[in-house]
Design a protein that fits this description.
By secondary structure, the protein is an alpha+beta fold. Helices cover about 45% and strands about 15% of the residues. It is built from six helices and eight strands; from the N terminus they run ααααββββαβββαβ. Strands 1, 2, 3, 5, 6 and 7 form a six-stranded mixed sheet that branches. Strands 4-8 form a two-stranded antiparallel ribbon. α1 runs antiparallel to α2.
């Protein structure tokens, strides 16, 4: 069979004949198959009959059945595909494990860096009464300009001053000053010899340690190189005095937005 002649007939039919959409698609597919396989092209009997109807009866082509692969070849190909699937699975799991390990390593490294940057040793605090004394020798982190948190989770409100709020500020200026006050307290803590003393909160008797007293926080004073951090922040315009009585406090001063 002269497939070049057949291809020429198909080319002519695509150009000269009025074909239905299906016929044009059919001829285009046959043309592509001939271009790809040449003399090895295999067409079914039904395809040959359709082809003769469209391009003419003198296309006397004897349909050839496609080559059948030997059973041994089929088994070899199946084994090859199976090995390829196992390899793909192995590569996928290797990539996933590598990704998970990288994420875990990044988290651990971030935690170590955070812990190193926020490591702040305290001096040994002297003990006195049940409401004023020692928290124990602990490290702490700065929560904001007037609050620190011990490593056991205890929040300690530093007394005698009040700094601008950063969590619920009344204006943008208060938020900015609050961030500066927090940063300044962190700087003092990082560069100074510290002494943190526990004192009694200005609350009603029997309420200390509950939400009814200072939102459940403890109270204390913090000295940096022998100077009260509240006095330092007040002198730098980052805090205002806030003096409480024995069992109550006046309204919290917040003059930064006025």
């Amino acid at each position: 069979m002269d497939y070049q002649s057949l291809k020429s007939r198909i080319d002519a039919a695509l150009v000269e004949k009025r074909l239905t959409a299906w016929q044009r698609t059919f001829l285009t597919d046959i043309q592509a198959k001939i271009e790809r396989y040449g003399s090895l092209t295999r067409l079914s009997e039904k395809q040959m009959l359709k082809l003769q109807d469209i391009v003419g009866d003198d296309t006397k082509v004897v349909p050839l059945r496609p080559l059948q692969k030997a059973p041994s070849q089929q088994r070899v190909q199946w084994r090859s595909r199976k090995r390829s699937f196992v390899q793909r699975e192995a590569r996928w799991w290797a990539r996933r494990l590598a990704r998970d390990f990288a994420i875990a390593a990044a988290l651990v490294l971030g935690f170590v860096v955070y812990a190193f940057l926020h490591r702040m040793p305290l001096s040994l605090w002297p003990a006195s009464s049940s409401s004023a004394g020692s928290f124990g020798e602990q490290s702490f982190t700065v929560t904001d300009g007037d609050t620190v948190r011990l490593h056991d989770g205890t929040a300690v409100r530093l007394v005698g001053f009040n700094t601008p709020e950063t969590f619920e500020p009344e204006c943008e200026r208060e938020r900015q000053l609050g961030e500066r006050a927090s940063a300044r307290l962190e700087e003092l803590v990082a560069r100074s010899n510290l002494q943190l003393d526990k004192i009694a909160c200005s609350c009603q008797p029997g309420t200390e340690g509950t939400e009814r007293c200072n939102h459940g926080r403890s109270c204390g004073t913090l000295l940096a190189d022998g100077h009260d951090v509240g006095d330092i922040l007040i002198s730098e315009g980052l805090a205002v005095p806030f003096i409480c009585g024995a069992t109550s406090c006046p309204p919290t001063p917040r003059p930064w937005c006025s």
